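Hi everyone, sorry if this is the wrong subforum. Our group has a chain we'd like a structural model of before ordering constructs, and none of us has done structure prediction before. Sequence below.
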Amino acid sequence: MRLSKPLSGMLVVGARPNFMRISAIIVAIMYGKLSYSSSIAFQLIHAGEHYKTLMSRSYFQHLGMPKPDVDLEVGSGLYAQQTAEIMRRIAPVTLNAQPDAVLVVGGGNSTIAFAHVASKRVYPPSNSHGLPSRSLIAHVEAG
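Answer:
Right subforum, don't worry. Here is the predicted structure as tokens:
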């Protein structure tokens, strides 16, 4: 499958249990396991829900994932505070990147926050009809 233009995406991970879910997708894209891998450009976003930097870095390395393009470094906190902080920090990132798709995994605070922000973002017209566009949101719960 050939895409007419590269698909831009954001792959989002926050809590450590979700690293395994997203790593399989990243590896498939990076190593050309998908027939259209060369037509996908992605940013890896790490919410930093779990605040042990060394442990997160170790997971990224062991799972063959690249260093995150953006680390929000949110840290721990109460559910509502953490979710709100993730939303506050990711909003300008999504606005600048204007991704075609956002992929979230699992069911943690970062999943809820990213999906909500992406669902509300409307970008300038980028299609032949001159209609505003939104990111496609994809969710993976299990491997």
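For your construct planning: The chain has a mean pLDDT of 81. Residues 13 and 19 are 6 Å apart (CA to CA).
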